[in-house]
Amino acid sequence: PTTEPGSALQALAERIRGVFGFDRLRPLQGEAMAAVLEGRDALVVLPTGGGKSLCYQAPALVKEGFTLVVSPLIALMADQLHSLEGHGVDAGVLNSVQTPEERALTWAKLHSGQLDILFCAPERLAVGDFFGGLVEAGLSAIAVDEAHCISHWGHDFRPDYRALGTLRKRAPGVPILALTATASPRVQDDICEQLQLRDPARLVGNFDRPNLTYRIVPRENLVSQALNVIQRHAGQAGIVYVMRRKDAEQVAGDLAAKGVRVEPYHAGMTPQKRKQAQDAFLSERIDVIVATVAFGMGIDRSDVRFVIHAALPKGVEQYSQETGRAGRDGLPAECVLFYSGADFHGQRSLMERSAAEADEAGVTTARVELEGNLERLGHMWGFAAGAFCRHRFLVEYFGGRFEVLPDGCGACDVCLGELPAEDDAQVIAQKILSCVVHCRQGYGAGHVTNVLRGAKLKKIEQLGHDQFTTFGLLADKSQAEVRSYIDQLIAQEYLRVSPGKYPVIGMTRSGLAVMKGEEQATLFKPPAPKKKSAARS
Ligand code: ADP
Ligand code: ZN
């Protein structure tokens, strides 16, 4: 503890070389370790595979006492423990599946100073004076892995993690290192607040994947659209993500009928069948796997050249994780998302319904979780239906900075100029926004659409909405077109939807700015009339 951080870091570099065999640190690993050695709190946000574990494992070797690592899954802890033991590191675990003898042995080692690292599940720390015992045994640092689990704004909220909020008070002098691979700035703030971090070093890595080209396309006919992408990559590996098990079966069947070497993969299959599909994919006997989101944990093919999403994912976190499976060899790969407004509206009512059920069943966190779920879905929708550079959006979503080149990123549909822009965007937007104001922000998208199209409906007459100056202003557009414009305006936060049984459309501050001509709205041309799509059958 008397050595300076600088020289401590140098000593550490040698230990890292000796123990782990790494000659060089990855980006931000050094900064994270320096924070731990200085006794400063830190939040580390690095992509999966970025090397988060080393940030706490290495300092634990040179620090006095031991480092507590909080991790959500027993299986993850076991993996890390084995790998550390393989490197000759003194590490242990305390969990609920151990025998009393095993636990007693670990405690004894801990008290006699034989362990550098101790793994533990969050719920243990809430039990009696378990944590007090750790402090007595020489706890000198705390690492919270998968730290986004503490935030209901995150995509994997775990009520157990909330217990970690008391650690700071119970061990005020012990530095806390929080680590995660997926945290928007809001989730990052929440992590810092919940864990009561003091002036933490915020170390956010680079999440950009420059070798991936992103495209987001309205869904018309999923199978023929997907086939198009697959044919661009004939004989190469790809993953198609679908929402439901039966979609996986059906889409795989449809693609197979077109000659694609493909298998479905989902949780409803027997373990044996799943393994067969997985083996076929890994051994290159098939090229394409059509999977529900559950897929992917154990599958590690680095030459995946394309990832297709058949429908809107629930959040940017999932999207980024799933597209992240493309091009892991660093070579170019393509990510195409096919979506429709119905995905968004359908997901939203599904979330609201299941929250209401959970609420009734007495799940106390159902409401806050719904809030987080809806927010993430809204961001995903904004990403899909909006028209910002996709690389820039993704990097900024996770709190990074992205330099926009004059010619764009060169690797997304927006920058490549593939989205047909609507020339009259501003005028169309103003008509729609005025109509929402006329409707006194009390009606849904369907009604607003009908008024704008001048529909001769009894309800409209009874309400007197056919007297509005905005009545029939978009009579030359189809219903689907007007709906698409409205969805795009919602996505860009010029309009907002208040949740509820009958979602109502309202104005936002930037919507008002567009009405006044202070801000310029952009819209792209809505897709051609929709045919029946396999993703929703
Ligand atoms: P994360 O937890 O961020 O997903 P890991 O900690 O599991 O990532 O590390 C991913 C892989 O990178 C591991 O195999 C690890 O051994 C390796 N690794 C970590 N740091 C370095 C480094 N500085 N040099 C080389 N390999 C590293
Ligand atoms: Zn771009």
From TrEMBL:
Would the keyword Hydrolase turn up in this protein's UniProt record?
A: yes
Alphabetic keyword roster: ATP-binding, DNA-binding, Helicase, Hydrolase, Isomerase, Metal-binding, Nucleotide-binding
Q: Name one GO biological process term.
A: DNA recombination
Q: Catalysed reaction(s)?
A: Couples ATP hydrolysis with the unwinding of duplex DNA by translocating in the 3'-5' direction
Task: Recall the GO molecular function terms of this protein's record.
Answer: 3'-5' DNA helicase activity; ATP binding; DNA binding; four-way junction helicase activity; hydrolase activity; metal ion binding
Main EC class the enzyme belongs to = isomerase
CDD domains, alphabetized: DEXHc_RecQ, SF2_C_RecQ
Residue span(s) of domain Helicase C-terminal: 222-369
Q: Where is the Helicase ATP-binding domain?
A: 33-201
What is the required cofactor set for this protein?
Answer: Zn(2+); Mg(2+)
Sorted alphabetically, the Gene Ontology cellular component annotations on this record are: bacterial nucleoid; cytoplasm; replisome
Q: What is its EC number?
A: 5.6.2.4
Q: Which domain of life is it from?
A: Bacteria
Family classification: Belongs to the helicase family. RecQ subfamily.
The record, for PANTHER family, names: ATP-DEPENDENT DNA HELICASE Q1, DNA HELICASE RECQ FAMILY MEMBER
Specify the protein name: ATP-dependent DNA helicase RecQ
Task: Give the species this sequence originates from.
Answer: Engelhardtia mirabilis
Encoding gene (name): recQ_2
